[in-house]
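Zf-HC2 domain-containing protein (Nonlabens xylanidelens), 81 aa
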Amino acid sequence: MGRFFINCDEASILSTREQYGDLNPKEAFRHKLHQGHCIRCRSFHKNNERFQRKLRGLKWVTLSDSQKDSIKKRIAASMKK
Ligand SMILES: [Zn+2]
């Protein structure tokens, strides 16, 4: 992803990864930039955040480090497609 502007697919992946605090500053910037001109992704991200907050509120949902790792790997793999 060397480009400045990303498409909606990439934005949705960034939005998901952002929930895990997994974005570097460049990615976070691209994501913000995309949300700035794309209403659809903005609302997708809002829903994502709401969902994550709910999950965090439910104490029984906790991801171990190895689970988080496997999620990251799966996301990274899907970005290579
Ligand atoms: Zn979009």
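Residues 8-80 form one domain. The pocket of zinc ion is lined by residues 8, 11, 34, 38, 40-41 (CB under 6 Å). ok done for today
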